Amino acid sequence: PLVTSKEMFKKAYEGKYAIGAFNVNNMEIIQGIVEAAQEEKAPLILQVSAGARKYAKPLYLKKLVEAAVHDSGLPIVLHLDHGESFEICKSCIDDGFTSVMIDGSKYPFEENIELTKRVVDYAHERGVVVEAELGRLAGIEDAVKVSEQDALFTDPDEAVEFVERTGVDSLAIAIGTSHGAYKFKGEPKLDFERLEKISNMLPGFPIVLHGASSVPSEFVELCNKYGGQIPGAQGVPESMLRKAAEMGVCKINIDTDLRLAMTASVRKYLAENPSHFDPRQYLGPGRDAIKQMVIHKMRNVLGCSGKA
Ligand code: G3H
Ligand code: 13P
Ligand code: ZN
Ligand code: NA
């Protein structure tokens, strides 16, 4: 069935692991992820961005996820990623999503609280859970001075006040991760002191890490070997994610690594089979590359294998 993340997060918090939240945009991506979760007996969050809804149409994604639930028999969370308004959150809640993110992180503190509270009230009346975000995601190297970094990263006292005043179910925080394939210019670094502080001040409360792809060099190299041009890509080291998962972090968002895995495999297939033109011939391996990537994450990074 489609479920909320309430129980998943509770177990993940106590068990010191994290649930993977994977972005989905089409059938092959959904199938690859769900096959992995089935094989690993892992809890699963499938998340849909505004861009995904635009690309695939909301109804297609909803029906594909429903098909995944029926076919796999797994409990799956259907989550809106980075909802930027009350309206898109409402639309997803009305459509049967079990979880939504309202991302008010670009607004001043009080406005973020007001917007988040409005979504929480609407969602909770309908049995849907809400994730919010406080602080700005930007690479630690982007902030030149400590004072600037301080302004960008999530303030622990504000986090506590935010959670209390909004009644939100989980909170995405900024500690140095960022979206995409170029997260760090130099040495990767996350502000674990800050994470620990926030975690300790919100005992039992699920924290979310966005921008948590690791951008494995073998996949970047594979893309580049077969005609790609993504030099200098760098992500969050897996050891850091494992450490975060042992603390209050219960949800780890991964999109870029799925994109890299699928694209590397499609590039390789097409380069090696120039006469093939049936999309199933390269999308099949693309789907399998997603599956293998997700299995690796569940087993070796998130620690959620066998926890469904
Ligand atoms: O947070 C961003 C996710 O990677 C989704 O990306 O907005 O291009 O679908 P997207
Ligand atoms: P990555 O770009 O690191 O995969 O982050 C995805 C994300 O945070 C989706 O909300
Ligand atoms: Zn994100
Ligand atoms: Na955890």
UniProtKB/TrEMBL annotation:
Q: Where does the chain cross the membrane? A: none
GO BP terms: namely:
fructose 1,6-bisphosphate metabolic process; glycolytic process
UniProt: Zn(2+) 1 binding residues: 82, 179, 210
Where along this sequence does the record place binding of Zn(2+) 2?
103, 133
Query: What is the UniProt remark on how the cofactor binds and its stoichiometry?
Result: Binds 2 Zn(2+) ions per subunit. One is catalytic and the other provides a structural contribution.
Q: Where is the active site?
A: 81 (proton donor)
Q: Which residues bind dihydroxyacetone phosphate?
A: 180, 211-213, 253-256
| Listed cofactors | Zn(2+)
Q: Name one Pfam family in it.
A: F_bP_aldolase
The catalysed reaction is: beta-D-fructose 1,6-bisphosphate = D-glyceraldehyde 3-phosphate + dihydroxyacetone phosphate
InterPro entries recorded = Aldolase_TIM, Class_II_FBP_aldolase, FBA_II, Fruc_bis_ald_class-2
Enzyme Commission code(s) on record: 4.1.2.13
Q: Which domain of life is it from?
A: Bacteria
Q: In which pathway does it act?
A: Carbohydrate degradation; glycolysis; D-glyceraldehyde 3-phosphate and glycerone phosphate from D-glucose: step 4/4
GO MF terms on file?
fructose-bisphosphate aldolase activity; zinc ion binding
Q: Which UniProt keywords apply?
A: Glycolysis, Lyase, Metal-binding, Zinc
Assigned protein family: Belongs to the class II fructose-bisphosphate aldolase family.
Its annotated function is as follows:
Catalyzes the aldol condensation of dihydroxyacetone phosphate (DHAP or glycerone-phosphate) with glyceraldehyde 3-phosphate (G3P) to form fructose 1,6-bisphosphate (FBP) in gluconeogenesis and the reverse reaction in glycolysis.
> What is the protein name stated in its UniProt record?
Fructose-bisphosphate aldolase
State the taxonomy lineage. Answer: Bacteria, Bacillati, Bacillota, Clostridia, Thermosediminibacterales
